[in-house]
Write a structure and sequence with these properties.
With about 325 residues, this protein is an alpha/beta fold. Helices cover about 40% and strands about 20% of the residues. Helix 2 links the parallel strand 1 and strand 2. The protein is elongated, with a radius of gyration of 20 Å.
Amino acid sequence: MRLRTAALVATLALGSLVVPLAADAQQAGKVPRIGFLYPVSAALASSRTEAFVQGLREFGYIEGQNITIEWRLSEVPADRLSELAAELVRLKVDVIVTGGTPAAFAARKATSTIPIVMSSVGDPVATGLVATLARPGGNITGLSLVSPDLAGKRLELIKESVPGLSRVAILVNLANPIQKVVLGQTEVAARSLGMQLQPVDVRDPRELESAFAAMAKRRAGAVIVPFDPIFFSNRRRIVDLAAKSRLPAIYFDKGYVEAGGLMAYGPNIADLARRAATYVDRILKGAKPADLPVEQPTRFELVINLKTAKALGLTIPQSVLFRADHVIQ
């Protein structure tokens, strides 16, 4: 089940031309084996896998030469994630790198001894994955996707961009533990801004059409789409449904905006995947996950699609455009 995108293979081929640095963690004759568990397809995860491979290369690790990576990339339900995590444990990998909160939980269920590096999870403390950010404890550490004020910032941006906005829907997958945390944070932010929040729970892609129909029926003026593997895997469909419903939407990841969504505000997830290689290197050199603090994002990207804004009849204020990192004309 070793999946690779053509882009990833090409990247590795270029990497083979580089003379690798000696990785201190390698024992004589032993090549470290890394498991990479992500519940989206290889094509959709390509920017993140390439970033992770680039991060490893910066520490002198070249796949096929002095490191082996067991890729487990597939759009699967939570119970299948547990099977894939158990498979990586049977392969006796040295480290498991996960993407998304469900994958981190699957890896933790599969092993309490193999180090786990989270490359992109929601709030690992609130969901119980780690004890604290500073001292995670156990066999898990890595990078969080969220910061305390992220939900409020996203609401402020969409409110500032949509005149007279008072009712906002939020797409949530409450089967994903982090979604309950995100929903709670967004509810607090909505109250502080005098807005009515309308949660719509979607746990299966087949529910997306009825979800947007419910938003229209409840007269939502916009929709928030937070990070979730199910949503990301169906981002083009979600963008199309938002356009069909004439609902301005703010997303977590710029991939939605590149697919035609209105705007996105969040961390650069590919950069988080690259940073995960730092944790892998330190663990291979003897560090314990329990002693490596979990990082929170400090840089966020605002991406706006003006073509989509025009189609919705919106004029994005200059005060918002000035803050944008990238504007699609």
